[in-house]
Amino acid sequence: MKHTILVVEDEYLIARDIKNILKEEGYKVIIDVDNVDYALEVLANEPISLVLLDINLKSDKNGIDLGRYLLGKDLIPFIYITSYTDKLTLDKASETRPYGYIVKPYKAIDVKTTVSIVLNNIKYKNLDIMRHVDTITDDNPFLIKKVISYIHEHVTERIEVQKLAEITPWKVHHFIKNFTRYIGKTPYNYVIDRKLEHAKALLVETQIPARQISYQLSFKSHSNFCRFFRIREQKTPDEYRKYHRGLKAK
């Protein structure tokens, strides 16, 4: 999957130069974003993999303000690309925990290698979680991985799509679109599938009644659970339990 990189830079010629450098590496690059408010709007509507962020911007808020916001939300990794090298600025920038710091004037190789290293680190950031989640692949964007991890950690709870969207910077309809694009099914159906996988394991490995399992997994009702189960497995939960226990006994 092609990564989308957002460049927040108020000098158009620099932004265009960065875009040309990164396009050579196969990235999709969004420029013409020169202030924090516009950057937040783009982040809410586009599946951004990485932000390249100037510190001095033509607005009341600067790049460090945006970096602080991204850190607080733990949303999207970012790299500062700036001419500031004084200790005060560096200390403030460091507090936002950027993934990199490129000093202007930069060389093309500096931009290429820093971006490549950061994206590679992001790819493996959740490696321990990914080893236990069979539907996550290295090609899924960082934010989708976070959502999937949340679903697996809270599979027994009532999980609303609105809540999942809040893990990302996207509005609900953009979240559903992006999730479906990368996973191949809607967030709602993915949650149902994970709950049913958990239910199947409980049916085969435990003596817990099917009705109690449906409540443990926070289905709206037992009949709702049975309806989804029959659609997916062509068997009722009790039929599934009897069939698979028969296989284990052989």
Number of strands: 5
Question: What order do the helices and strands follow?
Answer: EHEHEHEHEHHHHHHHHH
Portion of residues in helices? 55-70%
CATH superfamily name of the largest domain?
A: Homeodomain-like
What ranges have pLDDT less than 50 throughout 5 or more consecutive residues? 126-140
What is the highest CATH level, the class of the largest domain? Answer: Mainly Alpha
The helix tally amounts to: 13
Structure classification: alpha/beta
Average pLDDT confidence is 86
Strand order of the largest sheet: 2-1-3-4-5
Write down the Rg: 23 Å
CATH topology of the largest domain: Arc Repressor Mutant, subunit A
Domains, number: 2
Pfam family, one: Response_reg
Keywords: DNA-binding, Phosphoprotein, Transcription, Transcription regulation
Domain Response regulatory: 4-119
Organism: Flavobacterium aciduliphilum
Plain-language structure description:
There is one protein chain. The protein is α/β, with parallel strands linked by helices and 250 residues long. The protein has 2 domains: 120 residues, Rossmann fold, CATH 3.40.50; 125 residues, Homeodomain-like (Arc Repressor Mutant, subunit A, Orthogonal Bundle). The chain is 57% helix and 10% strand. Strand 1, helix 1 and strand 2 form a beta-alpha-beta unit. About 6% of the residues have low confidence.
